Amino acid sequence: MFDMATDFSRISRTAGVIQNGGVHLAQLNIGRLRAPMDDPMIDDFHTNLDPVNAIAEQSPGFVWRLQDDTGNATGIKPFGDDLEIVNLTVWESIEALAEFTYRSAHREILRRRREFFEAPAQPTLCLWWIPEGTIPTVDDAIARLEHLRAHGPTPTAFTFRHRFEPGGEAAATADDRDVCPA
User: Fold this and answer.
1) What is the pLDDT of residues 46-93, one digit of tens each?
2) On the CB side of 59, how many CA atoms lie within 13 Å of its CA?
3) Which of 36, 63, 65, 152 has the most beta carbons within 10 angstroms of its beta carbon?
4) In sequence order, what are the residues at sequence separation of 6 or more whose Cβ sits closer than 8 angstroms to the Cβ of residue 15?
5) Burial of 86 (0-12, 13-18, 19+ CB in 10 A)
6) Residue 176 in domain
7) Is 2 part of any domain?
8) Which of the pair, 22 or 3, is modelled with greater confidence?
9) Mean pLDDT of the chain
10) For residue 141, what is the domain's CATH number?
11) Section 13-22 average pLDDT
12) 174 inside domain
């Protein structure tokens, strides 16, 4: 069985400068698909999954992403719901993640997310700082998302719009370009 906390063979590193003095940014987002992965309604999402993951892995500042033996995380079901999928990644900085999320080909799939995913009733994305070299567990990531849902953005779990610095202080401002296009 794959143990995310100890299987470092799946960690990808990119060249670049660590911007946050020994910390990285962890990111979790979840979504409930409108149909199973093999349904034609989801074909464009399914077809673009590997190419978008490849763009992420080649992006400056990318560190790691959760994946199973198929090379993606769509088979990992922490909620026991076959339609719920998770995306858990680690980046060198919030800026690196934002560049990939909002200013790469990923943006086009993100823009179309309502075609593939049900509209959420609560936050589905959270960010938090981790010590460099740490691989977050799905359980910790879900606990952070639950914290965000219960308490709003805090240094424990925050969003692109309401950011915190690695030391816990609120970030001065978020980049206006870091807004979901959907």
Assistant:
1) 999 999 999 999 999 999 999 999 899 999 999 999 999 999 999 999
2) 30
3) 63
4) 60
5) buried
6) no
7) no
8) 22
9) 86
10) 3.30.70.100
11) 48
12) no
- Give the pLDDT of residue 82: 96
Q: Which domain holds residue 34?
A: 11-151
CA distances to 35, 116, 117, 162 from 83, rounded to whole Å, are 7, 11, 9, 29
Dihedral (Cα; 61, 150, 33, 59), 10-degree rounding: 0
CB 129 within 8 A of CB 24: yes
pLDDT of residue 2: 29
Token pair in block for residue 71? 């090379």
What values do phi and psi take at 58, rounded to 5?
-90, -5
Q: What's phi and psi for 146, nearest 5 deg?
A: -65, -40
pLDDT in tens, 129-161: 999 999 999 999 999 999 999 999 999 999 998
Q: What is the pLDDT of residue 12?
A: 34
Say if 147 falls within a structural domain.
yes
- Judge whether 96 and 27 are in contact, CB under 8 Å: no
- For 131-144, letters b (16+ CB in 10 Å) and e give eeebbbebebbbeb
pTM over 0.70: yes
